Amino acid sequence: MTICVPIMNIPTIMKTTRESLKTVPNSYREGARALGAGKWKTIHTVVLKSCTSGMITGILLTVGRILGESAALLFTAGFAQVLNPIYEGMFSSGASLSVAMYVFAKERGEFDVAFGIAGILLILTLIISVAAQILEARTKER
Asked: Could you count the other beta carbons within 10 Å of the beta carbon of residue 38?
């Protein structure tokens, strides 16, 4: 499980990074080169600093997508919760919040625990969204 989800989301990160790099105007690159900066200095000081916010936003959105992808986790390694009780299952390998929520709501009928897990997932999603906005604001200030 630790390798499956990141590998599935590498294309998303690559696509957002590529699109973020395309948004940097060629005049920025040409201006840096005209001022005597080398190729790597131009990439480091001009191009990457101009597209960092887009790259960070893409990565954070991918992390949010990973939190929401329950189907891949459910069918690859997420059923550790079924075999173990809540306290052992949440900390064993393969346990995921989305699968635990499903198991507690549908199979065990413990809706209070399922609602608690849903609240945790909502809070994690909110934290990721706020972090993306803060990082975007900080990189735009620079």
From this structure: 10
Q: Please give the helix or strand (H or E) that residue 76 lies within, else none.
A: helix 70-76
Assessment of whether the complete model's pTM goes beyond 0.70 = no
Distance CA 30, CA 138 (A): 26
Enumerate long-range contacts of 123-126, CB under 8 Å, 24 or more apart: 124/67, 125/64, 125/67, 125/68
Half-sphere CA count of 38, side-chain side, radius 13 A:
2
**Residue count (the chain):** 142
Is it the case that residue 100 has pLDDT exceeding 60? yes
d(CA 102, CA 65): 18
Instruction: Find out whether 79 and 96 touch, Cβ atoms under 8 Å.
Output: no
